[in-house]
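User: Structure please.
Assistant: Input sequence and predicted structure:
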Amino acid sequence: FYNLPTVFKDAIVFTMKLGFDFILIDALCIIQDSHSDWTREASRMHKVYKNGALNISALAAASDPETASLYVAKESAVPAFMADALWLNDVRTYCVIPEDSHFRSSIDTAELNQRGWVFQERFLSPRTLSFGAQLFWECAHGESCEEFPQRLPPAVRSF
């Protein structure tokens, strides 16, 4: 355990704190330099992702997995907010985002999410918890983050 990269140790401890008994870390379960092992295991991963309880995504680990942590320092951001606007006797509620959406910039364009196997992992998993500048949640029922814990407003949704 002590020789594992910090991001793996963080994920193991986090998984235990959630009350799960098992964690699959693909970099540890698939022999990285073995084409035959990768081919065999990769052909089964869609079942693993589809049947897993929770996918944990360490966005910061994409660039340097050996030294990255699951937890990253929070970026200071102007929070988004909801505002009602009246235009020609029609009141509508709009999501006002002073800066670019953290969801799009942190999730959709994240280096980690540009990899093919992560695409499969992200979209087949019933739910994904991504650790980045914020904590992000994706499931079949919606997307949320620390800025919008209930649900991302329609203007912010990525897909």
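The helical segments are 6-17, 26-29, 35-42, 45-51, 102-108, 116-124.
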